[in-house]
Amino acid sequence: MKVSGKHWSGIRNMDGYKASWYKEWFGEDYLTVYKHRDNNDARRLTALIVHYCSPKELNTVLDLACGNGRHSFLLAKHFKHVIGLDLSRHLLDRARRARKNGDACPCFVRADMRLLPFKGHFDLVASLFTSFGYFNDDGQHRRVAEEISRVLKQGGYFVMDYFNADYVKQHLVPEGERIMEGMLIREKRWIEKGRVFKKITIEKNGRPKSFYEAVRMFSREEMVTMFSRAGIEIRHIFGDYDGSPFTSRAPRMILFGNKK
Ligand SMILES: C[S@@+](CC[C@H](N)C(=O)[O-])C[C@H]1O[C@@H](n2cnc3c(N)ncnc32)[C@H](O)[C@@H]1O
């Protein structure tokens, strides 16, 4: 598949930015910068999923963009067959190494979420911790929604844990600096062209390197419409991992739906 790597011109502070930033960012440095998003978060979200979708009736689960597999391992305690899929070789390697010897589940597959290497056999597809909205045109986001729908069984469940755009607008911290594991981490955040951007500069032994994130700020209506057009009816939206309601002040937008 052709994936654009062209520079995103005309946007400030964007030295070295590539539209395919997600191919470079999700490695070891990502795990350090997001260390605070640990297994506790994953446990709370998994509990919400298990509460909403009855594991007794559902067998096959796809953890789409699974990263190092933190949710895949927890989901595998409740669902029989869990597959974690990701594009990052590094994070998949971490996930595979974390699997206990002889365990068949979860298993991990490398692929692009725009072209899923499966037929429609999943009871549940989960896209967790803002693993969507990375592409520079909405056609590619629609393509992911269609792929999710295609690999779901009829009536199968879909869950997406995304940020709440209103909350991000209200709480955006433009700059921050911290030290983690001997690295100085500087983060700059801004909103432009319907996306929330983050430039992350990591300085180790006096040598700085920069990464970017650029994630589309989908509203609730845009998400519901996009998935509905792809054949997935969104039935419920939570505002946080504790199952609280979705409001403009909620930190998360956690959508639950079913394939029509
Ligand atoms: C924010 S991380 C979340 C990972 C994981 N869900 C978690 O909660 O820890 C987003 C993940 O999306 C993956 N990713 C990015 N672009 C992708 C693509 N085109 N296809 C599949 N995975 C992708 C990254 O490699 C990364 O692991």
Question: What does the average pLDDT come to?
Answer: 92
Question: In oligomeric terms, what are we looking at?
Answer: single chain
- Provide the number of structural domains: 2
Total of DSSP H or I helical runs spanning 4+ residues:
8
* Straight-line N-to-C gap: 28 Å
Class by alpha and beta content: alpha/beta
Small molecules held by this entry: S-adenosylmethionine
Describe the structure.
With 260 residues, the protein is of the alpha/beta class. The chain folds into 2 domains: 22-32 and 167-215, no CATH class; 35-164 and 218-259, Vaccinia Virus protein VP39 (Rossmann fold), CATH 3.40.50. The protein has 8 helices and 11 strands. It has helices at 22-25, 28-33, 39-52, 70-75, 89-98, 138-151, 165-171, 220-230; strands spanning 60-64, 81-86, 107-110, 122-127, 152-163, 175-180, 183-192, 195-204, 207-216, 232-238, 252-259. A hairpin with a 2-residue loop joins strand 7 (183-192) and strand 8. The protein is globular and about 55 Å long. It starts with 21 loop residues before the first helix and ends with a strand. The model is unreliable at 1-11 (pLDDT under 50). Bound molecules: S-adenosylmethionine. Residues 22, 26, 65-67, 70-71, 86-88, 91, 112-113, 128-131, 134 line the site of S-adenosylmethionine.
